[in-house]
Write a structure and sequence with these properties.
CATH superfamily of the largest domain: ANL, N-terminal domain
Structural class: alpha/beta
Largest sheet: 9 strands, mixed
Number of strands: 29
Shape: globular
Oligomer: single chain
Number of domains: 2
Bound molecules: adenosine-5'-triphosphate, magnesium ion
């Protein structure tokens, strides 16, 4: 292990995980549930009530829920105002007779309307399903069809470009709620201008009884390994959102929180909308795309205290160099977390050196609905580790192909194994935000379970202290000359070289070795590819990794990413082998 543990200082008071084992052992989901209100008069549990109404009815009514930052300046929306706008939205849906459980899709960037739509939809007991606004017509149509979309909330421009060409294939879509003014002569079947509909709607809406098991959210996976799946979540999920906001993100109600995830993937809803609002936090809502200078300015000017981002964004900031960061006052920041891809040890250490704080990795999936494994604010960090399971979550490592035999259960190695052995990461079903199915695909859902475990499809190791280390996706593992090689380890080693910004590693079929390790490398801004640099990187890899080092290195200006920021190794591999690229609907450049 080249990286030293980053130790944390002695505890201040607060609801934090100081003694991990003690907190975990004392924790129960029932107890976590008791920290939420529930609907008045025992009418059930509704996410929107927990996120908005209960704050709006109390001392937080005038506290800022959303701080919207755009080119025009900053607009604050209080919890009281958010209650009213979401009530109005729910009234609009009620007036259109959108029935319980029917799906309301959004095709929007991050702006106040997204929050109004998401939470208003939940209030009316409809199901919210967000799409990437960068999707082209085909992926939009495919998801609306699969999800039986009844209502779509979008802008006239996005509608014209992305929905109009496929509208005829969407007979179930009845209403299109439009953010902005519809131009003269533009005809949108079922189109309603949202602003005027909201202005006319009843601001006093009572949330109907909501069963905690009622479907609330439909999220499509990132499509990194293949065609995206539609994961179904229920209102009960809010118990996990609320608990993990505290455990994993250390959120308190006086924090200013910024989640940079696109609204189109699960983090954008679980932690971009729900979890922080249930904690009464102020959320920064930034409408723009990634831009290093603007991002630092937001951190500085909005006095962001807790920041949740992704490795790909961190790598882009690293690529811009430390000077830009040092030009800004980041003194309000006290906690940084990252999700979505392995966070390379170098990035954790860069955070410590340049931003003054280590970056806390955590792990979860669309299917898990909330953070499952995490580096806590109070916990010593081992750079490169995803951390330890959230209290209430039982994480195991299973021996592959042995139908659910556990090597590790919750950090404890079982008799048949030794610390550090690789296994498939699995979770014991029962946490509140677990997906309840893949929509219209029960067969696939059933295949995700074995021996009483939910199988994540990721491979990991667990050390003697119960820290989990990501190895790779089962699909991406390279089998070379009898070794099993995880791409993450190779990528992380290459990224320690000062010329390298990002690396994506695949197994290229080889008649002798089975597969050989091939790395695709993108360079930092000031670097240019050359034969000399290629040879240097090969040698650097050999020194660091020995036998598992890449045998081939190719330079790429940019690696292919999903819109949620993940390196699409399957695409690197398909291109390398001249095979069809498969589903590329979530590829970052897709328009
Ligand atoms: P698909 O299931 O369609 O192939 P996807 O798995 O990328 O797409 P998501 O649910 O958005 O869709 O991503 C979850 C996956 O992202 C995890 O299974 C894991 O492979 C990866 N991931 C998330 N967080 C981390 C992390 N902290 N470290 C390593 N990998 C992570
Ligand atoms: Mg997945």
């Amino acid at each position: 292990m080249r990286w030293q543990t980053i130790a944390k200082e002695a505890p201040p008071a607060g609801p934090r995980v100081w003694d991990y084992a003690e907190v975990r052992d004392a924790f129960s989901w029932e107890q976590a549930r008791a920290g939420l209100d529930g609907l008045p008069d025992g009418r059930g549990l509704n996410i929107a009530h927990e996120a908005v109404d209960r704050h709006a009815a109390g001392p937080k009514a005038d506290a800022v829920a959303l701080r919207c930052v755009d080119g025009a300046g900053v607009t604050d929306i209080t919890y009281g105002q958010l209650r009213e706008s979401t009530n109005r939205f729910a009234s609009v849906l009620g007036g259109l007779s959108v029935g319980r459980g029917e799906r309301v899709f959004s095709l929007l960037g991050r702006g106040p309307e997204l929050y109004t739509a998401a939470l208003g939809t939940l209030k009316n007991t409809n199901v919210f399903s967000p799409l990437f606004s960068a999707f082209g017509p085909d992926p939009v149509g495919e998801r609306l069809r699969l999800g039986n979309g009844r209502v779509l909330v979008t802008t006239p421009e996005l509608y014209t470009r992305k929905v109009a060409p496929i509208r005829e294939s969407l007979p179930e879509l009845r209403h299109v709620l439009l953010v902005g003014t519809v131009g003269e002569g533009t005809r949108i079947p079922g189109g309603i201008e949202l602003d005027s509909a909201l202005a006319e709607a009843d601001p006093g809406f009572e949330i109907p009884p909501t069963d905690p098991e009622d479907m609330a959210l439909l999220h499509f996976t990132s499509g990194t390994t293949g065609k995206p799946k539609g994961a179904v979540h229920v209102h009960e999920a809010v118990v996990a959102h609320h608990a993990t906001a505290s455990f994993a993100l250390d959120l308190h109600d006086d924090d200013v929180f910024w989640c940079t995830a696109d609204p189109g993937w699960v983090t954008g809803t679980s932690y971009g909308i729900i979890a922080p609002l249930t904690r009464g936090t102020t959320l920064v809502v930034d409408t723009g795309e990634f831009d290093a200078r603007r991002w630092y300015r937001i951190l500085q000017e909005q006095r962001v205290s807790v920041w949740y981002t992704a490795p790909t964004a961190v790598r882009m900031l690293m690529r811009r160099g430390a000077d830009l960061a040092r030009d800004h006052d980041l003194s309000a920041l006290r906690f940084i977390a990252s999700v979505g891809e392995p966070l390379n040890p170098e990035a954790v250490v860069w955070g410590q050196e340049v931003l003054g704080l280590p970056i806390h990795d955590n792990w979860w999936q669309t299917e898990t609905g909330a953070i499952m494994i995490s580096n806590y604010a109070t916990m010593d960090i081992r750079p490169g580790s995803m951390g330890r399971p959230v209290p209430g979550v039982v994480a195991g490592l299973l021996e592959r192909g042995k139908d659910g035999r556990a090597l590790v259960t919750n950090g404890r190695v079982t008799e048949s194994s030794t610390p550090g052995e690789m296994g498939e990461l699995a979770l014991r079903p029962g946490w509140p935000s677990m997906f309840r199915g893949y929509l219209h695909d029960d067969v696939r859902y059933a295949k995700m379970f074995a021996g009483g475990w939910y199988l994540t499809g990721d491979l990991a190791r667990c050390d003697a202290d119960g820290y989990y280390w990501f190895v790779g996706r089962a699909d991406d593992i390279i089998k070379s000359a009898g070794h099993l090689i995880g791409p993450f380890e190779v990528e992380s080693a290459l990224m320690e070289h000062p010329a390298v910004a990002e690396a994506g590693v695949i197994g290229r079929p080889d008649p002798v070795a089975g597969e050989i390790v091939k790395a695709f490398v993108s360079l930092r801004r000031e670097q240019t590819p050359s034969e000399e640099l290629r040879r240097e990187l090969l040698a650097f890899g050999r020194r660091r990794l020995g036998g598992v080092a890449p045998k081939e290195i190719a330079f790429e200006a940019d690696l292919p990413h999903t819109r949620s920021g993940k390196v699409m190794r399957r695409l690197l591999k398909a291109r390398e082998m001249g095979l069809p690229e498969g589903d590329v609907s979530t590829l970052e450049t897709a328009q």
